[in-house]
Amino acid sequence: MSGSFEVIFRNKKAVVGLAIVLAYVAIAVAAPWITEHAPMQRVGRPHQPPSMDQLLGTTRMGRDVFTQLIWGTRTSLFVGFLAGLIVTVIGVALGITAGYLGGWVDEVINFFTNIALVIPQLPLLLVIAAFVGQASPMVIALIIGLTSWAWGARVTRAQTMSLRRREFIEASELAGEPTWRMIAVELLPNLLSIIGFNFIGSVIYTIITEATLEFLGLGDPNAVSWGTMLYNAQTSSAIMIGAWWEVAAPASFIAVIGIGLSLINFAIDEISNPRLRTLGTVAKAAKAQRAIDRARVDATAPEA
Amino acid sequence: MPFVLRRIGFYIVAFCAAAVINFLIPRLMPGDPIDFMFAKAENTLPPEARAALLKTFGFAVGPLHEQFLAYLRSVFTWDLGYSVKFYPLTVSQVLGYALPWTVFLAGTSAILAFSVGSITGILAAWRRGGAFDSVASPLALAVQAIPAVVVALAALFVFGVALKWLPTGYAFDPKLDPGWSPQFIGSVAHSAIMPVVSLAFVHIGGYLVTMRNNMIGQLGEDHVVMGLAKGLSDRRVRYNYAARNALLPSVTAFALTIGSVMGGSLVTEVVFNYPGLGRTLYVAIVARDYPLIQGQLLVMTLAMLTANLAVDLAYVFLDPRLRRA
């Protein structure tokens, strides 16, 4: 296990990505201690630019942008991880079932997956959210989770099908392993990189989509999140009157968490497919290998 | 061409599935859809229009299967009834006006993103680890993770409000008469720069990364080594040997991102006040104009299926194996 940690920490992208995500988690956990006010409290005059008292300025309602940003981090991370979990569990369950069992089960699941893939996602989400009416962040997470599993199911299915023909799977089948063991012990570990990729991709997608739905005014206006901050900025024409801080704060927070998560995803891709590593890494590895070789040669060489 | 026929068959089934979902959503939701949709329009809508709406949408009281048949008839005759918000315009009229703008906006930016992303991806892979690759690839990664809302709002603020280089909204100068006059076309192009570029911007990164990764896979293949060994020019090996094969997964990605381009176009249209389907859907949702929302979903699904079909045809052209199969 310590070996796999080493693999992760040797990848610079993974380290930077993890650092960003952990920083966000820390902010979300520590929200009550970092901020002085309640997020919906009036703390000053409307549309005040950033100052010492209000680090990131105030909104039209005179609320502190910094406080809302910090508390919004909690909401966005929670929604992102919850929906990511739902998407991954559904996608993996359907993908493995279809890919492993094959036959008519595969036909049926694959048919529904393909249909879910060609129906436009965001418009559908918008319509469902509109009918639910002022959807809370939790409801948004559920809607996204239950409608966005198709991509993960397709990718997991493809990988399961290619694993299914490998010799070690056929061998354990001949040895008479029960189905649950085949799936849990033989298949799942080999699907981990795809599952991780799917999970993190879904978290990014959810955070972006939640913000978009709320920006369009389909969320609960009393929830504190990055999306509602953008929505309030848009409805109070913050951009047109030059109150850029109201938009810049949540926008940059969304962008940076997205970058952090996709760095991790890129790293997963590189770790599971060494060809993709950039030459810098390859050169470094070659150099390290040469140093090891030299050390060995020196150690075994007779004293001159 | 059995492949294409099979795909067309699938798209017809998919469209029916979308129509069923469209039918079920309002019925699965809490509350009565009729009250819901007239709550805001009660004062502006004459009673006979209300009766007509009920009829065309199969909301008439009756068993579910009769409602469904009535609904299907309205879908296949494209008689989608009246819009509540834009009454007395019919849904088809409202959509007919908005559709070309979205096709123009989403189509231009999808093609722009695909070409720029794929070409830069090819170059990044060719000199893997070189200066261009080590700047462009991480940058693409970062760009890919930024939502369309953020890009659109940032562009609006910087180029529209602060620098005042480009118009902040609408598809053309409202002072001009729509037509094929040079001024009008110029005005459309001028107004389209910001929406098209900001929408394309979000997707360039994805294509770059996909293309780069596929290219790197191809560059290790025997036929590429063979091409180089034969002494062909770099250019020829790069584009005709490696890129042509690497392009296939990118084309699949293109089909899959058409949906997200349409989603992004929705947001972009709202931010830039662009008169396409996305903004119409937004207006319809805010006004709870259900006939219009349902019509929107159908048209958007149809647009997406058509785009997927176009990609399938491109596949036949790019992958000779499919022509025989």
Short summary of the structure?
The complex is a heterodimer of chains A (304) and B (325). With 304 residues, chain A is mainly alpha-helical.
Descriptive overview:
The complex is a heterodimer of chains A (304) and B (325). Chain A is an all-alpha fold and 304 residues long. In chain A, 75% of the residues lie in helices and 0% in strands. Chain A is built from twelve helices and no strands. The radius of gyration of chain A is 24 Å and the shape is flat. The mean pLDDT of chain A is 80. By secondary structure, chain B is mainly alpha-helical. Chain B has a domain of 226 residues: MetI-like (MetI-like fold, Orthogonal Bundle). Chain B is 77% helix and 0% strand. In chain B, helix 5 packs antiparallel against helix 10. In chain B, 44% of the residues are buried. The mean pLDDT of chain B is 77.
Q: What is the fold's blueprint, element by element?
A:
The complex is a heterodimer of chains A (304) and B (325).
Chain A: H1 2-10, H2 12-34, H3 65-101, H4 103-118, H5 121-132, H6 137-147, H7 150-164, H8 167-174, H9 179-215, H10 226-235, H11 244-272, H12 279-300
Helix pairs in contact in A: 2-3, 2-11, 3-4, 3-6, 3-7, 3-9, 3-11, 4-7, 5-6, 6-9, 7-9, 9-10, 9-11, 10-11
Chain B: H1 2-28, H2 33-38, H3 47-56, H4 64-76, H5 91-126, H6 131-144, H7 148-162, H8 182-219, H9 222-229, H10 234-272, H11 277-286, H12 290-318, H13 321-324
Helix pairs in contact in B: 1-12, 5-6, 5-8, 5-10, 5-12, 6-8, 7-8, 7-10, 8-10, 9-10, 10-11, 10-12, 11-12
